[in-house]
Design a protein that fits this description.
Layout (H helix, E strand, L loop, with lengths): L1 H11 L6 E3 L4 H6 L3 H9 L3 E3 L8 H11 L19 H21 L5 H12 L6 H11 L13
Antiparallel strand pairs: 1-2
């Protein structure tokens, strides 16, 4: 019967493990010798191909739902290089835009003189400041804020 299953599998273009013989047709299957015999049995559904072992997507959907909520995205779950999620350029653009926006705000509120603004702008462009808070610290340490005005140190 193993050889018959293999032959049926070749005709059905599938694995022998997926070939199922009908229980009531075992005598007919034992008598079958040629490929045409097997084709006849397949035509009358005495030999069928089962669709077992199909991989379920339920687990994948569950994980995707969690990822949409922002979970399961820690360091251990990440694949790829360090900058695969957010490229180095995008991270830089975001940092510099925040710093420039802050400097512009200070200039418009007349908290920064134009020469100081240009100096800080250039420093920001050169990557001197780590973040917005670092700019605030630098301003406080070097007394660059115009007299009579104070920079708000909270967000």
């Amino acid at each position: 019967m193993k050889a018959k299953k293999r032959l049926a599998a070749e005709i059905l273009n599938t694995s022998p493990y997926k070939v199922v013989f009908a229980a009531d047709a075992l005598d007919d299957i034992k008598k079958a010798i040629t490929r045409s015999d097997f084709r006849g049995l397949i035509a009358v559904k005495k030999i069928v191909k089962s669709n077992v072992n199909q991989h379920s997507r339920a687990g994948a959907r569950r994980i995707l739902a969690q990822k949409k909520k922002g979970r399961q995205k820690g360091r251990g779950s990440r694949k790829g290089r360090k900058n695969a999620l957010v490229t180095g350029k995008e991270r830089w653009m975001s940092t510099v835009r925040i710093q420039r926006r802050f400097l512009k705000e200070l200039k418009e509120k007349n908290l920064l003189s134009i020469p100081n603004y240009r100096n800080l702008y250039a420093k920001s462009k050169g990557g001197f400041f780590r973040n917005k808070r670092h700019i605030k610290l630098y301003l406080a340490e070097n007394n660059l804020v115009e007299k009579g005005n104070k920079v708000n140190h909270e967000k």
